[in-house]
Amino acid sequence: CLTSTENLSGPQPREYNQFLCSICLDVFTDPVSIPCGHNFCKTCITEYWNINVQCQCPVCKRLYNMRPELQINTFISEMAAQFRQSAQQKTSSSSSEQQDVKPEVHQMIQKRRLKIEEIKASVQLSNKDADREIAEGVQVFTALKESVERGFLFTVLTESCLLRR
User: Residue ranges of the RING-type domain (predicted)?
Assistant: First the structure.
């Protein structure tokens, strides 16, 4: 059972979007059309209306005083079934291609994992260097502060001695 167009290989043509429910983003299951013309899975729109206080279209926000009666749109249902069947055929035919690619993909994943580990090690080293630099900066700042305080104290004492004379 195809649950999403993500299962198809390659980019998806725009036409495929017409077979997707805008609530669940999957191929329609029991598609219904509401009065504004938008289509949804029957279960999706029913649950949406059960959750929300106002009965409105989730796409265009058109309000309905009464909940519209939902009838399965057989045309869209048949089209969605054909789409599902076509998508499954494409998926099964591309599965053999995917098996050939798997070792290459696995190797690429391993290389990326190694690169991630290298980056993590580099970040740890950078953090240690940064911590060391911060500690050295604090020591320099503390020594400078103490020097300024001694200078200030010396100035105060010198002035005090000069005033006593």
Answer: 21-61
Joined tokens for residue 52:
């929300």
pLDDT digits over 5-36, tens only?
444 443 355 566 788 999 998 899 999 999 99
Tokens of 101: 């690619």
Question: Rounded to 5 degrees, what angle do the CA atoms 112, 114, 118 make?
Answer: 115
* Best CA proximity match to 31, nearest among 88, 85, 1, 74: 74
Which amino acid is residue 79, in one-letter code?
M
Burial of 103 by CB count in 10 Å (0-12 exposed, 13-18 middle, 19+ buried)?
exposed
Q: Give the dihedral of Cα atoms 79, 84, 87, 93; nearest 10 deg.
A: -130
Using an 8 Å Cβ cutoff, are 31 and 80 in contact? yes
Model confidence pTM above 0.85: no
Write down all domains in the chain, each with its CATH number in brackets: 5-128 (3.30.40.10)
Name residue 41's beta-bridge partners: 31
